[in-house]
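Fold this sequence, please.
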Amino acid sequence: MNVTLHSQRLDSLPADLLVVGVERGQDSPALAQLDRRLHGLLRAELRHQRFIASDGQVVLFQTHGALPARHVLAVGLGNGIGPRPWYQLSHTITTRAQEVHATRAAVMVPQAHLSPSTLAILAEGAQLSAYRFDRLKSAAKRHPVRLRQLMMAAAQPRTAARQAMARARLSAAATCYARDLINLPAAVVTPAYLAAEARRIARQQRLRVRILTSPALRRAGMGAVLGVAQGSTQPPYFIELVYQPRPRARSRPSAPKGSRPTTPSCVALAGKGITFDSGGLSIKTAESMQSQKRDMAGGAAVLAVMSVIRDLEVPVEVRAYIPATENMPSGSAIKPGDVLRAYNGRTIEVLNTDAEGRLVLADALSYAAAAKPDVLIDLATLTAAVRMALGSRYAAIMGTDATLVQQLIAAGRSCGENLWELPLIAEYRADIESTVADIKNTGEGAAGTIIGGLFLKEFTGSIPWAHIDFSSTVVTDKVFPCHPRGATGFGVRTLIRYLTNLPSVSSSPRR
């Protein structure tokens, strides 16, 4: 979709659908202007439908040739506070445009809210709402009419607004890319496919890339990834991407000896990349297995961030790690009771082969921590328990650094990706003590999301770390603002906002 900014009058824009966002209790000059062209009929219809501009209230008016546009859409914004009304507005525009077969729409928002951030949300939201995964459908099954152009009317287009909108378009494109990876079948998105995508992204964004195959994984001592992979005919890949900003920013004052810097110069991201999860020998039910192509969503989110990272001019070094493999049952598959040795040397008793995500992340996190980043963030569809705890609109976050956790919560809130902090309860650590190894991969069945977080913490060393478990939000069966059915791309925009909000600092080259 092409999203542009225009300073023309709303009624003069070449659009099929004219949209006016109205704040509750406030006059709308744009509606008054259109009403004059429509001889008072628009106001009369709004009164008839008792339009009071409450949040999400909509009135659609057909112009019957009185305007070049066929329809006028009035959309209530409530008080217009926060990102939600603007994501809702962009979603309403795209869905109503499809209903009335409009390919071009123009929107006017109240002058009081005409800021670069509001315009950016509208641009991002329109692209997210317009997303449809139909590439595997025949041409006859694809929707024939879609919104192709959205014009946002602003009295004085400014450079800041255009820059914010450009960043928003990149953020939306990255999110839609993650959605594609998650929606594609596991027969397509194999570990090798993710490795090939990483190489492509590295070329496009000028990143350093390192792909470890099975022999290199054995030499590196990544026994956890190899253990999960051994039941599949698909070979595993461990993906490392490194972005360094150019030009190098000015040096920051060095931190006191023994302390960590308050502003990170190097951020490490890790994403679970299980391209299909059967549960292994602890096999899932047939119904549970139907959606398990999504189990690489953490890796998809990390790849998506790296796909636009140089275009976004992220000011700090970012290192990305994705352990990519399938988890399958076979005669060679890992068995309950087996013991694996992770990259950092710790041994893991595997009591449930369906708790495999934490195994591959054990290698990824300890490998990332060995490079001494300033902060470490991982994303994973780790536990079914998180949905029981938080439902389908919140993901869990936990970590060892309160500032990092709060920064990620705030980044998520700014783009409508909700994170709720769960505690890493020290008393629960005893649940993963093993009698035959250093640690075991499951607890006693309660507080499963927290237990998963406590397990991962064992592999982060002293690095400030945050873990996002988003099994609850990775896909949606119900349409909600900016999210059609299917993969949501959750986490991509949260990470992008976190990274782009960091101040510019320099970092010395790392391993």
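The chain has a mean pLDDT of 93. The radius of gyration is 25 Å.
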